[in-house]
Amino acid sequence: MYVLLLSIHGLIRGHDLELGRDADTGGQTKYVVDLARALAERADIARVDLVTRRVIDPAVSPDYAEPFEALSEKARIVRIDAGPEGYIPKEQLWDHLDVFVDNLTAFLHDEAQWPGIIHSHYADAGYVGVRLSNLAGIPLVHTGHSLGRDKRQRLLAAGLDGEQIDARYNMMRRIEAEESVLGTADLVITSTYNEIEEQYALYDYYQPERMVVIPPGTDLVQFHPPAEEDPPIGFAADVDRFLDEPDKPLILALSRADHRKNIVALLEAYGESPELQSLANLLIIAGNRDDIRDLDEGARTVLTDVLLTIDAYDLYGKVAAPKHHRSEEVPEIYRLVTRSGGVFINPALTEPFGLTLLEAAASGLPLVATENGGPVDIIGNCKNGLLVDPLDRRAMADALIRILGDDDFRRELIQNGLTAVRDRYSWQAHAETYRERVAPLTKRAEPIPATPPLRRRLIYRDRALFTDLDQSLLGNSEGVRLFIEMMRTNKRCANFGIATGRRLDTLLVELKRHGIPVPDVMITSLGTEIHYSAALVVDDFWSEHVDHLWNPRAVRRALEDVPGLVPQRRTEQSRFKIAYHYDPTVAPPVEEITTLLRTRELTVNVIHAFGQFLDVVPIRASKGQALRYVAHRFGIPLEHILVAGGSGADEDMMRGNTLAVVVANRHHEELSQLLEMDNIYFAREAHALGILEAIEHYDFFGTCTVPGSNSGLGPDTAPNAPGKAS
């Protein structure tokens, strides 16, 4: 088995993980690296690639600019270019994910080996995983780590405005991506039952039968209790300098400096309890900092509040808050606290899982943890700690006092934890269960055929032009004539394709009416059907491919009573396309219609165009997905494909690595979000004249190379790929 792991944001490398550096470089980065290594240790797994975004930025280590990094003999990190070279937060990645998909697909094409399983981590990787899975027919496994609907609810409860949340966190795009991945994924792996019942249940595509709990493991070689013969722990000096009585037991809190981690409430609980202060010192490890003023707003606010709280309760000499620690020092920090006779606490408002709880338990520490989220399962399974309400400071202090004040109870918790972590939460146990659960899925993989089903000479053309028909190519007879001449001049090096919502029969009628030669490729009925050449050779593989999860009768039943939806005439319907007229004055918003279909467990694409048409097609079908499939079969780089369109149905053709043009008469508000995209040209001319304008703008045929020849058909025969619009 070849496993492809996707974890796109944050800073990921195989050594010295910068955990806590920012909100994007937390437990997920460690999880995916450990998972990759654990899977690669198995004899029944041949290869593991952990794919992330390549970052070239002087502000971060040059490690993150390396395209490849070995994790073990069979596992590696693969870094894919997408978006700006520099490091950016995950909320700013969304507009670049289509490029990530296209670049990753090109990488896999060049490698000539497709994975048997795609496993996406977090919503942004889920967006990528869905598109790669739908294109290549590869089973998709997903792990959410944290979920947008749950986060949005908590932020609303904290008093933030809904529009502010959506703008700051790109929350609606994240939630839409999560809905899509839940509708597509063959398996969703969670860390706890709480995650399934309390968080995934918030989604329209809530299908618990597709979900399985496989808790992450912990490295029992790295995390273990201290031994008598161990040398002194060097980090002790960084802690002792804060404390008046450094020989007291330590209470350890280790997390990012994030409001949700509830560190300030822990300090308040400690400050309000003289008994707890007499029993132990408090050690807070909250990321790394040189100057708090240079941190992002969230971390700056939390750490400022930490210092103010220490001052308010006069906790000087009782609280240690070192500014720096290295990731390789974390196991030593746990052992330092164990050696002191201390306790580990996770006081977070909610914790999706709680990997630090396992690390602490494996290091010989009893636990106090939030009763919200993953710790419920961990402490329930391990019987090695106490759960508390993170909003109840008195309860937090009492739990710590109970463990610190009762040596027998503390020793019992420690032994329970050491035994249960070894039996239930090792990476070896995780990898074994993982392999068992995903093995049946690999039988569903459908590798894309290597060549198109037609005469091979078309394969050797080095570029292609695809256009929508109505109101893009058609509309100006002189423009159509000039366009036909242009394509004939360059036909030896360029394929010509139509991508339309029309059925094949009505498309052929329109082509004949306007004297347009039959294209090399016809993508019809919104990407649900593909035919090649004047012989109308049907792509049977694509037809079988898009039939995945398609249930048209159920779709029609679900929408039959929706007001404002009127089925279009029969000539607009097809086997894989259900077409409606949409009256926005009567019909519910498109988002509500999509939700209705999701709650009926119907995995489909809903396409809204020009404010008045609504089409439902299979989840694997769209113009953009069909175009990428054709590009793969023809072996044409997407950077050598120019697409023309102008409605919401054309958007996914235009995103990513294709060159695109919106002709002047189709500068529709549905595509207004694409105005800032580098490779989308908004033409001044309308119809076919706008396409010709874009051909000149991109110098699209300037490097057009005749198969078997070094000479070009255009004025510039340099072999470079066409550049993107500035």
From TrEMBL:
The keyword Glycosyltransferase applies. Residues 246-417 form the Glycosyl transferase family domain. GO terms for molecular function: magnesium ion binding; phosphatase activity; sucrose-phosphate synthase activity. Residues 26-217 form the Glycosyltransferase subfamily 4-like N-terminal domain. It is an enzyme of class 2 (transferase). InterPro entries: Glyco_trans_1, Glyco_trans_4-like_N, HAD-like_sf, HAD-SF_hydro_IIB, HAD_sf, SPP-like_dom, SPS, Sucrose_P_synth_Pase-like_dom. It catalyses: beta-D-fructose 6-phosphate + UDP-alpha-D-glucose = sucrose 6(F)-phosphate + UDP + H(+). Keywords: Glycosyltransferase, Transferase. Its EC number is 2.4.1.14. Residues 463-699 form the Sucrose phosphatase-like domain. The keyword Glycosyltransferase applies. Coiled coil: none annotated. Belongs to the glycosyltransferase 1 family. NCBIfam families: HAD-SF-IIB, sucr_P_syn_N, sucr_syn_bact_C. This is sucrose-phosphate synthase.
